[in-house]
């Protein structure tokens, strides 16, 4: 009868999985999530510039981390427009009118098309950043 002692192999495997688990911590997940949101934000800004002369709308498009919906293993980000108030500099209160239209002007959406056209690119950015951060944390092992 042949017997194998797999305890050393199992210990090595457990050590490796512990290192990977540590490498995929909250900072890694945050960086990966932001990389994906960044893709959507940049495309929304490009789309908004097609509808605006001043660029105020594009400058108002931001990424927000949703703290209440995020934890160590899951990160939630929102690409939105800093609305502001009418007549106050630094916001684009009218963004809803552009995105959804009004009774007197047709919709010229810029957010939804950004999402639809860049879903795969955002997923790729998340995976690329995740792989890069894990590689950095593991030291290329």
Automatic annotation (TrEMBL):
The protein's name: HK97 gp10 family phage protein
Species name: Massilia antarctica
